[in-house]
Q: What sequence folds into this?
RNA sequence: GGCGACGUACCCAAGUGGCUUAAGGGGAAGGUCUGCAAAACCUUUAUUCAUCGGUUCGAAUCCGAUCGUCGCCUCCA
């Protein structure tokens, strides 16, 4: 079955045709490790994870590269040479290298909690400086670069199709410009390939280059590292929707100018997670981290399910109410799985392999249609509710679907009754006695009392269980 | 100023010309079970897709206008 992707290049759904049969090269723009990643960042990483899982589900061998940007993102265009890493260093008192390590670790921990499959390789920008210099040299040799007082720039007027990905209206851009250009750039869209270290300050991160001491511009890394690990031309490149007009546009310019070949066949971009006040942004102070959700009693999987509920190209408005909904749904799904597990031994219905195949087909059709996860979830619920499927088959289908959903459903286990403190158990036993004596008034009072102390009493057929109340 | 996206029930959301006089989930209401709860299960919950006009045998889906919301053009997932 074909997989269809909405290709930003062309703005239409296209059937995926890999360069090498059965294989897919995938490059996804990773985090800039100058701060924590917020759940909005992770929405994009989750979308990319789903994409990769869909390719794997279809039997592709996926080579996935994700960069870690630990240098080179300038705070603003007219800045003083400080980049985000150096700025973070000044803020925290750590060296830039310590900062990089610190936030990279937090990023990877959160990614793991969200059940995001790790890439074949994480590539740190600072570990591939030579490759970036080689790229810039290549552009310089071919006449695409020029040197100014503060760096080496790419001359975008040398390309006839600059901005094709974003469908940039260069003239409109010029007219509507809100920022003043003080530098020596020849064109508004020209961008830095290499920035020189400021003369009066010693940067923590700087390298020698044929043009002078400094650091690479923030687009160079992706072009250089994708070339190294995936080749001049590869299959799929992803990122947030915000990367279309600048970062990805410039990557294309660099790579295609140097290599003389098309850079990427399919560009996929994820829409933003927004709050009531607009999009989540690190530069606007407070932001939501996964750890905060966990602190508030939500599971990382609750958030993953939340993201699954909306198509990746549609913007998503985050709210706690929405997260509550997701938590409720996932809880119900797991309850069902536990029920099916109990029933699956006593094969309640004869198998219906035709029906199973139909569901499998429906699911594949949904995820292969530009990652239509809301549709895929509807198929999942169809399986859960279908009276003509036996429990064993339902479980097989659910776990099969979870290879794409990544909700860790195969690890679903009944919440173990916990060992409550003795004082709680004492009250629980008193209630049980009251219940047996049919003194329900006292029993209910005792249950309320226990609840106030943070525990739930649940009566089961074969006894009473105590659970701690989270949140 | 330029570029672009979006507006489907109380909430989230799929569907983008006839298979759908609109999937799925949450919530709510009623029911089964239980001393009662909780959980689970069953039933019900949009003649209607921002508004107005047009195209068509046929539109939520195409075209136009209007209103509204938002993003980008500056670092950004």
A:
């Amino acid at each position: 079955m074909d997989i269809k992707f909405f290709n930003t290049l062309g703005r239409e759904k296209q059937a995926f045709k890999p360069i090498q049969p059965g294989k897919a090269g995938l490059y996804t723009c990773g985090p800039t490790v100058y701060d924590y990643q917020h759940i909005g960042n992770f929405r994009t990483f989750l979308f990319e994870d789903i994409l990769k899982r869909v390719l794997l589900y279809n039997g592709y061998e996926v080579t996935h590269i994700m960069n870690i940007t630990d240098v080179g993102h300038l705070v603003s265009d007219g800045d003083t040479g400080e980049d985000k890493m150096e700025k973070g260093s000044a803020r925290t008192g750590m060296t830039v290298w310590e900062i990089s390590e610190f936030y990279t670790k937090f990023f990877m921990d959160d990614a793991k909690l969200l059940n995001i499959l790790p890439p074949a390789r994480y590539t740190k920008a600072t570990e591939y400086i030579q490759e970036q210099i080689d790229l810039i040299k290549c552009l310089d040799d071919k006449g695409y670069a020029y040197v100014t007082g503060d760096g080496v720039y790419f001359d975008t007027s040398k390309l006839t199709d600059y901005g094709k990905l974003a469908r940039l209206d260069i003239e409109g851009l010029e007219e509507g410009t809100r920022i003043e250009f003080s530098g020596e750039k020849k064109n508004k869209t020209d961008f830095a390939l290499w920035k020189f270290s400021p003369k009066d300050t010693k940067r923590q991160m700087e390298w020698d280059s044929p043009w002078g001491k400094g650091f690479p511009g923030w687009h160079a890394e992706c072009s250089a590292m994708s070339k190294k690990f995936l080749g001049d031309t590869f299959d799929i490149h992803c990122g947030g929707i915000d990367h279309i007009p600048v970062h990805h546009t410039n990557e294309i310019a660099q790579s295609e100018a140097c290599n003389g070949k098309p850079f990427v066949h399919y560009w996929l971009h994820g829409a933003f997670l927004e709050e009531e006040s607009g999009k989540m942004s690190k530069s606007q102070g407070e932001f939501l981290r996964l750890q905060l959700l966990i602190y508030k009693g939500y599971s990382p999987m609750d958030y993953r399910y939340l993201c699954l509920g909306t198509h990746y190209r549609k913007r998503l408005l985050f709210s706690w109410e929405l997260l509550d909904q997701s938590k409720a749904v996932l809880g119900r799904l797991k309850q069902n799985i536990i029920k099916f597990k109990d029933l699956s031994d006593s094969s309640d219905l004869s198998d219906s392999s035709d029906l199973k195949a139909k569901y499998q087909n429906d699911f594949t059709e949904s995820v292969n249609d530009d990652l239509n996860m809301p549709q895929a979830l509807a198929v999942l619920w169809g399986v859960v509710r279908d009276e003509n499927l036996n429990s064993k088959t339902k479980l097989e289908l659910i776990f099969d679907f979870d290879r794409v959903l990544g909700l860790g459903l195969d690890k679903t286990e009944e919440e173990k009754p916990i060992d409550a403190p003795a004082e709680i158990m004492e009250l629980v036993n008193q209630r049980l006695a009251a219940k047996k004596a049919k003194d329900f008034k006292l029993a209910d009072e005792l249950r309320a009392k226990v609840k106030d102390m943070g525990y739930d009493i649940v009566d089961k057929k074969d006894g009473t269980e105590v659970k701690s109340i989270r949140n």
About this structure: The first helix of chain A runs from residue 39 to 57.
